[in-house]
């Protein structure tokens, strides 16, 4: 428990710092991209134009990183709406199957109950995609990527109280040793080769779930696989379909 608290305080501090830097950094990147584009337009030399193009590609990569950092540091605004997590997961099925290779079997199982939560749909999808990409990368020789939903009443200091929706993303890939497990949520921590990983997927996912008053938990064993569980507070005590008010109904407005 103490370890979790320490971890969460550390993430808080890193988040504040990272958010401030990411914000200023974004402004600088806009200036760099602007000048690179001007050079490209104004130069007569194709070599110079190509180099300016390279600058713009790098700037775009850096911008992608700052976007992830901002998501992690909660500077990004959340647009909350009532969403049914089962629907989110089911609709993501197609994009996820495009993301993973043919050697990986994608199993999606949603529970029978509606899982209505107040959430930013786009950001939740981003979290699930991050987890799925990591699972894919952990199974280079193929395997099973299992995404399932359910209801739980988790107990623990930094877990949401009461009935929660749970989304579990599991793989039977490489797994992680203790050292890696301790660092996965740190921004810029990656074991992937340069260009393949930014080390921001899990830290931004952590930030997004935290913003939703939820929690993210990980279990992993080297050689056996990894499982991430996302806990999100359910928005109503009864399934929202029964409430009958248009505003509270799942998927309203979409
Ligand atoms: P990135 O994917 O860019 O490396 P992440 O923050 O998403 O950044 O992940 C950090 C690290 O955590 C990865 O480089 C990898 O070592 C480890 N990791 C994350 N998910 C898994 C998984 N499902 N199986 C094994 N290792 C994982």
TrEMBL record:
<feature type="domain" description="Histidine kinase">
    <location>
        <begin position="20"/>
        <end position="236"/>
    </location>
</feature>
<protein>
    <recommendedName>
        <fullName>histidine kinase</fullName>
    </recommendedName>
</protein>
């Amino acid at each position: 428990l103490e370890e979790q608290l320490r971890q969460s305080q550390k993430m808080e501090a890193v988040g504040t710092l990272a958010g401030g830097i990411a914000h200023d950094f974004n402004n600088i990147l806009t200036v760099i991209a602007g000048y690179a584009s001007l050079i490209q337009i104004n130069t007569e030399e194709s070599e110079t134009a190509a180099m300016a193009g390279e600058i713009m590609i790098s700037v775009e990569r850096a911008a992608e990183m700052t976007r992830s950092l901002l998501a992690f540091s909660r500077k990004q605004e959340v647009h909350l709406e009532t969403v049914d997590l089962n629907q989110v997961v089911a609709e993501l099925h197609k994009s996820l199957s495009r993301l993973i290779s043919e050697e990986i079997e994608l199993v999606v199982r949603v529970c029978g109950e509606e899982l209505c939560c107040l959430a930013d749909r786009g950001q939740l999808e981003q979290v699930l995609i991050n987890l799925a990409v990591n699972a894919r990368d952990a199974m280079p020789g193929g395997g099973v990527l299992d995404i399932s939903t359910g209801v739980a009443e988790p107990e623990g200091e930094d877990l949401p109280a009461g009935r929660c929706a749970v989304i579990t993303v599991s793989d039977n890939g490489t797994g992680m040793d203790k050292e890696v497990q301790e660092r996965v949520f740190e921004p810029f921590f990656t074991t992937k080769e340069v260009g393949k990983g930014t080390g921001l997927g899990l830290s931004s996912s952590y930030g997004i779930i935290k913003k939703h008053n939820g929690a993210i938990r990980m279990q992993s064993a080297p050689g056996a696989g990894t499982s991430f569980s996302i806990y999100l507070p359910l928005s109503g005590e009864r399934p929202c379909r029964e409430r009958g008010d248009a505003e509270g109904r799942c998927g309203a407005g979409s």
